[in-house]
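To the team - NAP complex, inputs and output below.
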Amino acid sequence: MSLSRRALLAAGALAPLLPRRAAAEAGLIRRPIPKSGEMLPAIGIGTSRRYEVEPTPDKVAPLEEAVRRFVELGGSVIDTAPSYGTAEDVLGKIFAKGDLRQKVFLASKVSASGAEGGRAEIQRSFERMGVDVIDLVAVHNLIDTKTNLATLRDLKDRRKIRYVGVTVWRDGQFDALEPVLRTEPLDFVQVNYAVDNRAAAERVLPLAAEKGVAVMVNVPFGRDRLFKAVQGKPLPDFAKAFGCETWPQFFLKYVLGHPAVTCPIPGMAKVAYVEDNCAAARGRLPDAAERRQMEAFIDAL
Ligand SMILES: NC(=O)c1ccc[n+]([C@@H]2O[C@H](COP(=O)([O-])OP(=O)(O)OC[C@H]3O[C@@H](n4cnc5c(N)ncnc54)[C@H](OP(=O)(O)O)[C@@H]3O)[C@@H](O)[C@H]2O)c1
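Output:
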């Protein structure tokens, strides 16, 4: 510690800053992948829409800055898909220099139909991102699930991918998802869940917990839906008890408060969003009674 900082501390000048700073430096909450026990930081980056930019240095630079800050804060999960425009190419540019790839848990998807189509699409994902191994590949929106899962299991056996999963993002897909969760051996499921969109908690999340399947939560803000709902409204006082300082933290801590959830993956393409959202994965999470209070607050808006 520098003398001046020590002197300031002795004088008590930095005291009010300390709790906030200590919280900011604390590690992220980590949750196990049930099938392996591997621990994952409980917040990830979603790359749809905002990472779909022209993969030129000037367009990639701010996204690289967001990813770097995320990793600096202890984050590792990044979710992408071949169908997210140029997002995989952009990640390829970000991974091309430095050691970010080694620090990231990389999740992509397959959305082509047919064995050949699926294999070709996954092969292109490896090439576009310039990686030898993809940590997780999930069947996107249950497209040709049986065929694609067979391909993914083969790739897992050959150690080209480490985990296999499926994704949905609409409540209307839950009827089709349920038998897949019941009958297929899966490592991950990705599902829509938010404080104002709680249908997944009725059947999908309990079933995932029962089957030992890790849960990634997509659209945890409903894109702009929740932000619009709380626009101009202050955070309720009760949210301070579990460390919420912003609305995004309120929305993410709600999701993380569900014991079956492994990690929400909000879209975050800005350093400020990364810092804000990572703070949700630190400190205390709301308990069951507090989560009911959060639901009631949002329902009453
Ligand atoms: N079927 C599937 O597999 C499926 C479907 C949908 C999504 N996903 C995955 O889930 C991820 C998340 O979904 P999403 O990005 O569509 O929706 P989302 O996470 O609910 O919302 C993301 C948007 O919230 C805003 N935001 C994020 N952090 C913020 C903060 N701290 N403060 C203020 N605003 C903030 C940003 O809006 P602005 O950029 O407008 O400022 C951002 O684009 C996707 O990126 C994708 O990886 C998967």
